[in-house]
Amino acid sequence: MHYIGFWARTIYDDPLVFPQELPICSDVALREKMIRYLNAGIVHEVYRGWSYCRYHCGISDEEMGDCELTDGTWVWPIGLAHYVDTHHISLPPEFVNSVLELPLDPSLSQYTTPDAYWIVWSQQQRTQSKKHLVSQLREQCDRECSLALEQEYESQTRETGMSSKKCIWKSCTSAALKDRVFCARHLDARANQGELKVYAWERRFHYTSVFLQALKSQS
Fold this sequence. Notes:
2 domains; two-stranded antiparallel sheet; 8 helices; elongated
């Protein structure tokens, strides 16, 4: 089976893209056929959490569902019909052909993993300018997170003090914190970066919002 309709949550979720990057389907009759087809799928997998609309249009998470549907060949999130119905996104030609019961284009069938076709097709919808913007926003996000880390390490070192012993982390040449065996950086690494990890996620979602706002302004 082959997967379609799975989206990025942040600008770091390559190779997935956002539905806002896909072309609009202006054919009302085709959209109606796709919506009926998508809603007629049978349950393939049920998850323990709700999905959410990447457009943040106001539809509840419960309405977006918690499962995947299938027709035996394709697998899609139950909320995919909402994207076609409300946001008028297009779907890949091979899936559309299956909806319309047309012969498939052999050139579209050269994929080997369940999500390969969807990834290749949806990535082709991301323009070079959008790829460049994603790269710029990631760089900015990474700089902010790195700066926050360094500031935290310096603050922790000042507050705790340093010992006369070296940090025992392999290849580290820094002094360990007072009464500790690691320097601030590697003590943090062992703790999996706790609050700073939350900060990094907050910055990722912030810059994802910047990217989505840019898409909205271009539409």
